[in-house]
Specification:
heterotrimer, A alpha/beta (352), B mainly alpha (331), C alpha/beta (362), A: 352 residues, alpha/beta, Rossmann fold, 2 domains, C: 362 residues, four-stranded antiparallel β-sheet, 21% strand, ATP-binding (chain C), membrane (chain C), cell membrane (chain C), ABC transporter ATP-binding protein (chain C)
């Protein structure tokens, strides 16, 4: 592990005292199809609409929310696979939101992405050695002579047999392929890894193996993570802080325990309340579960004011007219709701 | 927006874009033929030709005018018609005038007008044959995938596809003597004679293309029958035939429609072999002759018709798609 | 939706299910084997599976990919292509044998007595037909009624599964529905003929968690109304805890543990079930390190000898005489409790669980 922990010399500028990563009012609006000769009115899908987020070195922040909430788009914005419509993405204080591809290159090395689907994110015609080696070469991490040794070292770090460097992705199982993806990300010696649903395509027993691997990397290499998942248990297990997204915005953000035990936003409460809990069978008395009515509105035409108000039991007139700001309601816990308050009784069943 | 309005709007958009493509093609064909460093007048005049005669022909063709002027004249001819004068004789060419063929002594429009029904008859009749044979055998093969019947069907298509197209046509011309003589009779005069005279050509086009349509349909149906919604249909307890033909075929045919549209367009513009071998005076034969005689106006007319047909078929495919797939219609 | 803003959330309490024991089995699977001959060899997808489900009860079949949970359930509806699948054993639904049933009889049986809902409502509904016409087709396949009557039935069913404005929705296409609405429509289609057996194959896996909660409620409500037997296939133990009466844990094509949910999830006796529980992060308490099962599930082309789980089992050293590698354990009661069975040679598994496994559960 010694070589892996040595900090790489950074080719990036940085502003002293600035946080590692900072998203400031980031928006991403996609043009909806249906434009053309006669359709004058172009529609915009507001996939991400004003997200603020801060990540400190070595910290793990979880992004949760349901499909269409914008969490995956946020991942692609942080890694600058997308250029935001508005807002700033500051890496060590330097805005990379609209940086040219050439200038961006050293930053790309420090911000790596792990994909959800280990099957489609690896080139089937390349050996594992080539896949990981390419990542090394792209960022000029090692001399040509040392490449194989480093590839094998990385394979060992992620728990694969280093002798398997000349095998192809299809010769590995799903969990092992995800390990290859992790080795590729580690090759660049990143300071931050954005993991977009890294375990959700895996079976439960394999999922736990990969989670433990990520956990040990985090502790030993001090890499910061932006961890995106829809499984609230997985996020809780892995993250220091959690941000809940709904329809393109962060509605609540805070330290893990506060967010899971005293969620203040009605949506967070409903989300946690909806998770089926195995505790029931261990004699835990069943809880009242909040059931949301209806569907998430279209991001093309989101509700005015608070975006959750159409499904919220607390909604008043003010919710339609005034967009609630994300403000601190408890220590380090920020909530975007006019009527934020902790739940009267615990949302989650206590384990007996 | 109502569904009908959405569909109409969609079709209108496609028609407008189709028209713009045709205009671009028109201009491009001009560039190809009128701006080429050739001497059509010299070719028309022949080897023993006087410079006066060449000048006369050039002025009658309008070739002595500036190029831009020629383009405008041609365009004008399409819209309102124009007149050609050679040696004091004035020939009128009605709109839409695509030029005047001196070698054949007739307006191009008239020539194409006579040749087009022949080609359309050949191609449509052939298409009926290969669609029925191809889709049916492809669908059946997909259902019995992996069995000896399937292997037989696939093997046959391989054999048929490896025989060159003209060899097939020749074989039919030489050996299928029981077929009526190949000759074009207008459909409206006598439908029976029309069909009889085209039978050999239909068989040629039908059999050669049926092989590829069998393969398209087979592949497409195998994919369709593996879809989740086919499994759902089976789980409902409807008959296997209904599952295959209502649920599977409906989805499996959609990609075949696309290929068919493009194929049809190409066949309409280039059934040259079939027309030559069976001596049917269609578009292919007309343009082939024009090519040999350097009959520029006819060649240009052929290119124009070809491009219009191609664009038109694409349009038809798009519109058919909106009826096949509601996601296109309403998405 | 201002009418719902009452200041109080709509809540549901899921009380522990009352076991309606003692009823006669409606679905009875005995020694089911499903094999697929392939170019690489024989894939043994299901090997000797037996279980039964009475009316009004829900059996959850859990397992990871390749455990045989979906393959066995498709066999119950006769959905396997007989030219590629080799099926032996017995599947009795309402007394009728499904294995080797004629095609004609299968048509009457599928969608009539037994119906199925699938994982991905997006791909499971035909994109080219309206939702209504797909429900009507199912109804008319089993009932000799006019189109008009079938449409009324479809509208009625859409309403019953909680689709607002069913009279308008009935003429819409699946892509005009949201994911949750599509799954509701699938459920309406499956229940249109009042089937006595409903098989739900991962019906909520593709859905978001709040939508999943709605669909789970719906299935539970409808089961109460229709009184059907339900087989619920899932990999999510939390879902099982909420919806099922009994649970069957599958591994490598066989059942490794079977019994009432609260017993199997509360005090499992098979090391594979222990491993699953140790792999799931908890929503409460101090996060504990996970203890994943080492290795990967076996290939069904070469299922390990003896107990198929032995290559991944940390307890096999406790069993004498290499039983685990040579002798396939039977699915029998392993403790004084005769209402539950498991397939493991380990002695006194209840004590091992209590003293060694329980303390380290997340």
């Amino acid at each position: 592990m010694t070589a892996a922990t040595t900090p790489a010399k950074s080719g990036v500028r940085s502003v002293p005292g600035a946080p590692l990563l900072e998203l400031d009012g980031v928006k991403m609006h996609f043009k909806a199809k249906g434009d053309g000769l006669l359709a004058r009115k172009t529609q915009w899908v507001q996939a991400v609409d004003g997200v603020d987020l801060t990540v400190s070195p070595g910290e793990t922040i979880g992004l949760v929310g349901e499909s269409g909430c914008g969490k995956s788009t946020t991942a692609r914005l942080i890694t600058r696979l997308l250029e935001p419509t508005a807002g700033e993405i500051r890496y060590q204080g330097v805005d990379i939101a609209h940086m040219s591809e050439r200038k961006l290159r050293p930053y790309r090395r420090e911000i790596q992405l792990i994909f959800q689907d280990p099957y489609s994110s690896l080139n089937p015609r390349h050996t594992v050695g080539t896949i990981v080696g390419t990542a090394l070469r792209t960022h000029g991490m090692v001399a040509k002579s040392g490449e194989l040794a480093r590839v094998q070292e990385l394979l060992e770090v992620v728990g694969l047999n280093p002798e398997h460097y000349n095998r192809y992705p299809h010769e590995f199982s799903g969990g092992q392929r995800q390990r290859i993806g992790i080795a590729r990300a580690l090759a660049a010696r990143p300071k931050i890894i954005v993991a977009d649903e890294p375990v959700s395509a895996l079976d439960v027993s394999i999922q736990a193996q990969v989670m433990n691997l990520l956990e040990s990397l985090r502790q030993e290499l001090g890499i910061a993570f932006v961890f995106i998942a829809h499984d609230l248990g997985v996020v809780r297990h892995f993250c220091d802080r959690v941000a809940v997204m709904y329809l393109g915005r962060v509605v609540e953000e805070g330290p893990r325990d506060a967010l899971y035990e005293k969620p203040q936003h009605p949506y967070t409460q409903a989300l946690l309340s909806a998770v089926p809990d195995i505790g029931v069978v261990r004699g835990v008395p069943p809880k009242n579960r909040i059931r949301l009515v209806g569907d998430v509105p279209s991001p093309v035409d989101p509700p005015s004011g608070c975006r959750f108000r159409t499904r919220c039991w607390k909604a008043q007139d003010i919710c339609a007219t005034e967009d609630p700001a994300l403000i601190e309601r408890a220590p380090a816990q920020r909530v975007a709701c006019h009527f934020a308050e902790p739940p009267a009784e615990s949302i989650l069943a206590e384990t007996a | 927006m109502k569904e009908e309005q959405a569909v109409l709007l969609y079709i209108l958009k496609r028609v407008l874009s189709a028209i713009s493509v045709v205009i671009v093609t028109l201009v491009a064909s001009f560039a190809l033929f009128f701006f080429a460093p050739t001497d059509p007048a010299g070719v028309i005049c022949g080897p023993r030709c006087t410079p006066e005669r060449v000048a006369d022909i050039e002025s009658s063709l309008g070739l002595d005018q500036p190029k831009a002027e020629q383009v405008l004249l041609y365009m004008k001819g399409i819209v309102v018609g124009r007149e050609y004068s050679t040696g004091g004789v004035v020939r009128h060419c009605d709109a839409p005038c695509l030029g005047y063929s001196y070698t054949l002594g007739q307006p191009v429009t008239k020539l194409i007008g006579a040749a087009l029904p022949v080609t359309v008859s050949i191609v449509i009749g052939g298409a009926v044959v290969y669609l029925i044979v191809g889709i049916l055998s492809g669908t059946i093969a997909a259902q019995v995938r992996g069995t000896s019947l399937d292997r037989f069907v696939v093997g046959t298509t391989l054999v048929v596809q490896s025989i060159p197209y003209f060899v097939f046509a020749l074989m039919i011309a030489l050996y299928a003597t029981f077929l009526p003589d190949s000759r074009y009779h207008p459909f409206l005069d006598n439908p029976l004679l029309w069909a009889g005279g085209l039978l050999a050509a239909w068989l040629t086009i039908g059999v050669t293309n049926a092989a590829s349509y069998t393969r398209y349909s087979r592949a497409s149906m195998i994919e369709a029958l593996g879809q989740d919604f086919v499994r759902t249909a089976t789980s409902k307890g409807i008959s296997r035939r209904r599952v295959v033909y209502r649920h599977g075929l409906r989805a499996g045919l959609t990609p075949v429609v696309t290929i068919f549209g493009i194929d049809l367009a190409f066949q309409l513009t280039g059934a040259i072999f079939t027309e030559t071998i069976f001596n049917l005076p269609g578009l292919g034969l007309l343009t082939l002759r024009a090519f040999g005689q350097y009959d520029l106006p006819v060649l240009m007319g052929g290119v124009l018709i070809g491009s219009v047909v191609l664009v038109l078929m694409n349009l038809v495919v798009d519109i058919v798609y909106t009826f096949l797939d509601p996601r296109v219609r309403l998405g | 939706m201002s009418d719902q803003t009452t200041g109080v959330p709509q809540t549901v309490t899921r009380a522990p299910r009352e076991a309606a024991a003692g009823e006669e089995a409606y679905l009875e699977v005995t020694d089911l084997q499903v094999q697929f001959p392939t170019a690489d060899g024989l894939v043994r997808a299901v090997q000797g599976l037996s279980y039964s489900v009475p009316l009004r009860r829900t059996l959850a079949i859990v397992g990871e990919s390749g455990s045989g949970k979906s393959v066995s359930s498709m066999a119950v509806l006769g959905l396997h292509d007989r030219r590629v699948a080799r099926i032996t054993g017995s599947i009795k639904v309402g007394g009728r044998e499904v294995v080797n049933m004629s095609d004609k009889d299968l048509e009457g049986f599928r969608g009539g007595d037994a119906a199925m809902i699938f994982q991905d409502p997006q791909s499971s509904l035909h994109p080219y037909f309206t939702v209504g016409s797909q429900i009507m087709e199912s109804y008319r396949a089993h009932n000799n009624v006019s189109k008009r009557a079938a449409k009324e039935r479809a509208i009625d069913m859409l309403g019953r599964v909680g689709i607002p404005n069913p009279r308008r929705r009935v003429d819409q296409y699946p892509h005009e529905f949201s994911g949750g609405m599509r799954q509701r429509a699938m459920i309406a289609m499956a229940l249109v003929n009042d089937p006595k057996l409903l098989i739900a194959d991962e019906p909520t896996t593709a859905l978001d968690v709040t939508v999943q909660a709605q669909i789970l409620d719906l299935i539970a409500d409808l089961q109460r109304d229709f009184g059907s037997a339900v087989v619920f296939i899932t990999h999510d133990l939390g879902v099982v805890a909420e919806i099922a009466d009994d649970i069957l844990v599958m591994y490598a094509g066989t059942a490794v543990e079977h019994g009432p949910v609260n017993k199997i999830l509360g005090e499992p006796l098979h090391p594979y079930a222990w491993g699953l529980l140790e792999s799931i992060p908890a929503l409460t308490g101090e996060p504990q390190p996970l203890h994943p099962i080492p290795g990967t599930p076996p290939s069904l082309l070469a299922v390990p000898s003896g107990c198929p789980f032995h290559p991944r089992c940390e307890f096999k050293d406790r069993v004498p005489d290499d039983w685990c590698t040579t002798l396939r354990p039977d699915l029998i009661p392993r403790t004084a409790d005769l209402g539950r069975t498991s397939r493991c040679h380990l002695k006194e598994p209840d004590k091992v669980f209590e003293t060694e496994v329980l303390p380290r559960l997340p």
